[in-house]
Amino acid sequence: MFQLCKKICFSFFLLSSISSFAFAETVIESVDVIRTPVTRVDNILFLIDDSGSMNMQSDFFGTKRINVAKEVLRRINAKLPDLDYNIIMSTFSNREELLLVETPYNEDVFALAVNSIDSTLPIFGRSTNITQALSTAESLLDDLDGYTAIVMITDGLSNTGGKVSAEAIKLANKYGEKACLYVVAIDPSPEGSKIIRNMRSAFQQCTLGTNAQELLLAEGALDFYVSNVFYEEKVELDIKTREVFNIYIFPDFNFALGKWNITSDMLSYLEETKTYLQDNPKANALISGYTDNTGTAAYNLKVSNWRANAIKHWLVIQGIDANRLQTIGYGESNPEYTNDSKQGRALNRHVSIVTMK
């Protein structure tokens, strides 16, 4: 229904570039939305810091940081759909321990591996060697087929290895087309934050930065993270019959090149969208993300999904039920403007919202 509506309403949408536009039309009577999870990755490599500082108490959570890391892993496991990806899991400090070696994902096996992480290790004599952990990731990637998400959980403290940024850049240069590094920070100090920023910077084309506080406490944050790193939902619409419905179209939200973060100039329209959805509890929304043709088609498809999900995440945090919000990314396909000019490319880097009830 959303797809048909966009085609019917396209000319009206161009007229609504400044303010919202609403009208009624005879359309489909009912729509079954079929959402099928589809894996984004072939392998997931978890690197868990179990150094001495991770066995110290977190001032924020009131328990050991390693316990916080284990809880993050448990929450991720609870959200992961049972899809065809392999799991590799390893702890690291001044030594490494492989817990899972290229094992097909199974929720129970994953849980056993997480539970086996020792949270009673001594604090002293267990320094952090992030450089070696990245080097281990490189050696593991040599033997892995397909695309790999590398998830490192660390506080970034007391690193005794070589320069982390150089090792991260080396890894990105070698495997940037088939792997991405995602760092989950736990109570990092200024020094640890710098190390974590450097790692994320090496993979800035694909990474999604977050921390344990956000994943464990912010509503919708874990769903957003898991569905943007490990899998996506294929949305199919089963259109049956016709009825009269109301359509409400909002202005586009435009993004900078390669960006998907919410900016201040979007807030007034986001507030308007939120208010409309609050005032119309039976209305649902389709949030569609687009890019220009800069970069590869595969990367642009990811960015368009991230843009649409960033808008959805904002609305969910504001109290809108996630089940009322559908997202889809079109990448560089279906451009509404020419990509032959700077202005046209800027206009194509957008997210559109269509609501109906």
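(ticket continues) Second input and output from the same batch:
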Amino acid sequence: MRIVVDMQELRLKIAALLKQSLERNHMPRRKKQAEKPPKVRQQRIQAQRPKLDARPDTIDFRDQMYIATLTEVPVEKTLDDYTKAEVPILNQGTAGACAGFGLATVANYLLRKRKVRPDTTGVSPWMLYTMAQQSDPHDESAAYGTAANPDVGASCRSAMKGWNQNGVCQENYYSESGARKPANEVVVDARLRPLGAYFRVNHKDLVAMHTAIEEVGILYVSALIHEGWFQTGTDGKIPRVDGVSGGHAFAIVGYDRAGFWLQNSWGTGWGNSDKHLLRRRSIQGIWMFNRQGMLSLNLPHTSSVSVTTVC
């Protein structure tokens, strides 16, 4: 069978096919969109946004300043040692009770690390917060208070004073609504967890801060925080955002070359399992406790730090 081929038409078809092939191969490829970090956790934090009402510590010249000892201090204090204590991550919800919840985190750690009769029973953050509110002056001159709304949270110092004078009961003995056991049982149980010596630490003295963390393992902190705290990712970093959103209290549990690691009280849905990296420039003051006690820190409200111990 004889086939007649039009060479001109064949050339045109081959040229068209080549052109299509070239266009297909040289067509700019669509860039793969970078995966966006999951927003579920942060949306949950935004929906249950806590009230930021931690108050600055009042000045009291009776507070003793912490003096760094000659102990060896590591360049970094990672989270490895802290996580071994298995301190529970608390959740204050939308309540402005961070002064009590931050101190409860510190107390839970110190009681677990206590050499004599370690105690793994969680303490009541609501008892600590209630005692702090009763100690703080609720008047028009308060940092965030007004005459119409005197209930403006509490300071770290008042929370520690309440613990120092009364002890703290276990978590299921005292809730947000008040005592869940008879008063005498609450008092007796609280006396089992007294607070010993505590010291104020100079927040501008990095050596003192690192030494205090090495000695005790944890710091109690209050600070003025910004919107970056509500935009954190799972990498454990708080992005810097201008402005101030309010006062907040929490615990510092370690440090590295970039800043301080903290444990918050906003539940496990906040960032890296409720632990984040805090830049030092945010810190204003600190409280510290001895080896058998606990540490506490104040940020933008104050200009000092303090240390305490648990008996």
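Agent notes: The chain has one domain: 41-310. The first strand starts at residue 174 and ends at 175. Closing as not reproducible unless the customer responds.
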